[in-house]
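Protocol step 4 of 5: obtain the predicted structure for the target chain.
Materials: sequence only (see below). No template structures provided, no constraints applied. The aim of this step is simply to have a reference model before the mutagenesis design in step 5. Sequence pasted as it appears in the construct record:
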Amino acid sequence: MEYIVGVDIGGTFTDCVAMDEQGAVTLGKALSTPDDFAVGAVDAVGDAARNLGLVGADELLSATKFFFHACTVADNTLITRTGPKTGLLTTQGFGDTLLIMRGRTTEGLTESEAFRASTQSKPDSIIPRSLIEEVAERIDYKGSALVRLEAEEIARAVQSLIDRGVESIAIALLWALANDTHEKELADFIRRHHPSVYLSLSSEVAPYLGEYERTATTAFNAYVGPKIAAYLRRLREVLQSKGLGREPLVMQAYGGVLGIDDTCKKAVGTIESGPAAGIMGSRDFGEQLGVGNVLATDMGGTTFKVGVIRDGSVEKDHKPILMRYQLFLSKIWVESIGAGGGSIVWIDAESGLLKVGPRGAGSSPGPICYGLGGAEVTVSDADLILGYLNEECFLGGRMKLAKEPALEALKEKIAAPMNMTVAEAASGIYRITNSHMSDLIRRATVERGYDPREFTLFAFGGAAPVHAGRYAAELGIKEVVVPLTASVHGAAGLVGSDVIYDYGRSERLSVPADLERVREIFTGLVECAMASLDAAGFKESEMKIARSLDIRYRQQVHELNVPFPPGISELTEQDLETIYGRFDEFYELLYGAGAGYREAGKEIMAFRVVAIGELNKPRLRKYPIEKNRAEAALKTERKAYFEEARDFIPTKIYDYGRLAPGSEISGPAIIETPITTIVINPNDRATMDEYYNIRMVLAE
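Step 4 output (structure tokens):
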């Protein structure tokens, strides 16, 4: 038996999903090990192996056909600012580009923070000014060398950074996207004389128009690259010593996987790759369920995230803002807020209103009910008090919850000061949390031209299934799907991945653009992409190529990405006209009917190619559906609080492991699984489908 294995490293847990040749899925989970994440990865594989009846991780890895991986190493490096000492080489006179940014102080701030813009400052530079070295050189926008880069200048600038102890160097010269000769000369010198230094070249990492964004992306890559490279090479060594016979494949932020060496060159692509895996998993699940419009909602301990899948296509962002820096980075579009099971509840001193988040209790000490020393009331504490969580058998019995300390803290810190009963306070926390999440979904849909009622909502992450029935109902959504892999959904998304290379370049062309020039640029990008897939071992029949253009109305600042419609092979003038028309449609969908200003004309700003190498993977196993009685899975009954009654009412508790495809349950009810808890509200009903997902139909 061969397996496909996906391992997703989170802040607290490392998740594993193993799929066999028939598409049957087995789960594994272990604590993350920040000192050496490879240990936690092997532990999670070992847990899945034991659940399969195998001896341990070695036996499962020896039988693994593909090993997919997503990690938070880059994210953690940025958040904790624990990257190596990093320097920047840039064109003389442009050393302050990274610090000036776009001149605004509100980039990446929340709405409330932006209202206080005068009190805000720019983020600390990822590379301090003291480690930015300017070199005398100049390329113009046409690619002509106006000032040649001399050997003495190279040696001086590089040695200056080396003397200050840099371990990684970003090279971002003006107009290197038009002519990368000088960047390569600098890189060649460093590789010859200082081979241990990690290098990041803007012409390779971000060949797009936009001096600040290109420099920032290159700097981020240099900052996280050494840690990613060290970790992934260590992981490869450990896995191969345990029996893995092929190269691990690493999830990228745009939703595909690459080999370790390619990932190390563009390490910035792993930032937020974990959420990308969850969104891709939702797309694949939706495809198998025949659902094209999906709202993928992920609620963990700290954050709540939303991704949009429309007509089977995942929405992407090509200029995301990360840590208040705007980057050139193709990544799956995800909106997030600080709302999770560990979000801290507090009373605003000025207004006297009850607030939830954005601060969180983290995994240590965590919520009060975890019994690990937490002292702040959290959403999970309220969920327990409301009767939704099982204090005796949390996470399938692996953890017991402490209800009394949570109840006392809620009474003392929240209920009494607000002159509420404990039930009223807990219910208020639950409702506020759900409102925060429905507001975020509204921002991700209504404010972008989509009707949430036309979507099916997927609820994953450990905490989402407790809340999903409510925040979906607030938006008029009729169906909620809780996947079999709910709290390990990122790892589940990995096992359906393909190898994907993302190529692009800036080229500004007025519309109507010269057809031959458009063809020429795309031909070059496609040849590079197919060469990469060929080097990775793919046949031409296993390759798919997707093309798109970034277009804007002339003289505007922002552009939209417009994918080519299906079926275009040899590009024609008529095809280009169709694409220009699609831009108008996309623009008005996003900004409202009549918002487009066609009289201004249009211009193409960038060309993009996505090359997909399709891996031969089994589909999820489908099980026969029978008219099953859910009573066989009934565990007990306990009282839980529901708004319909404004009180605690008797609620049936079901064991997920004893349900079978076709089982039907009417609310109020709670389904307890080894990885999450599913709350079914009064008047709603739920069914286990042929893939062991729980599908809830919400009341009108």
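Step 4 remarks: The two ends are 46 Å apart (CA to CA). The chain has 18 helices and 35 strands.
Proceed to step 5.
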